[in-house]
Amino acid sequence: MSVFSILSIRLLFVDADVEFSWTEEEVVEVYNNTSFIIASDVCYDDDLTDGLFRTLYRLCNNFLHNCTILISIEKRLNFTLRHLNVSCKAYDHFCHCLAQLQDRMDGKCSFRVEQLPSNFPQFLSYERIEQLELWKVSCDQAQSEF
Ligand SMILES: *[C@@H]1O[C@H](CO)[C@@H](O)[C@H](O)[C@H]1NC(C)=O
Ligand SMILES: *[C@@H]1O[C@H](CO)[C@@H](O)[C@H](O)[C@H]1NC(C)=O
Ligand SMILES: *[C@@H]1O[C@H](CO)[C@@H](O)[C@H](O)[C@H]1NC(C)=O
Ligand SMILES: *[C@@H]1O[C@H](CO)[C@@H](O)[C@H](O)[C@H]1NC(C)=O
Ligand SMILES: *[C@@H]1O[C@H](CO)[C@@H](O)[C@H](O)[C@H]1NC(C)=O
């Protein structure tokens, strides 16, 4: 089992001319061995959130094993004149992407999305605010036909 930080996904490019690019072997190792992906505080811009979900979808469809993706997000509520109320557009878009991922049927794996209870364990020292949410996406590979 290996844990794969979302921060390094953009490095999956295989181009020997580019410094720090991955080798074909390393990419296969990631595809074959990844069981967890952790992403923290990466959903605050709609275009980047779209990119994140496209990447997750693509990765999971290449994985050999089922994979659990944990994503933390702070729902940064703010007053907007448009809604005349507090809202968080980035959070709304994140939820939209989660729902879309769960509904996708066109790949070889299926996705289940759930929000984990807010009292999940705290192992590091940080200020736990009410707006902090932890989401779990389970990616199941289709049963292989043996
Ligand atoms: C990756 O998995 C495939 C399919 O099981 C296997 O054929 C291949 O040898 C594996 N490669 C590595 C580097 O683990
Ligand atoms: C990936 O898994 C294979 C066996 O499934 C193992 O031999 C190999 O060492 C693992 N690679 C890494 C980088 O964990
Ligand atoms: C609203 O936005 C401002 C400016 O970005 C920020 O300083 C403030 O903390 C936000 N309020 C909340 C409740 O997040
Ligand atoms: C304002 O937004 C909050 C948080 O989303 C919601 O609970 C509340 O019902 C909204 N109030 C109005 C008047 O829409
Ligand atoms: C993946 O998850 C599904 C549903 O939980 C399960 O039926 C299947 O056995 C799992 N596959 C592997 C390879 O663990």
TrEMBL record:
Alphabetical UniProt keywords: Methyltransferase, Signal, Transferase
Any GO BP annotation: methylation
Lineage top rank: taxon: Eukaryota
First and last residue of the signal peptide: 1-16
Family annotation (InterPro entries): METTL22, SAM-dependent_MTases_sf
Keyword set includes Mitochondrion: no
A GO MF label: protein methyltransferase activity
GO cellular component terms attached to this protein's record: nucleus
Name used for this protein in its record: Methyltransferase-like protein 22 isoform X1
Organism: Scomber scombrus
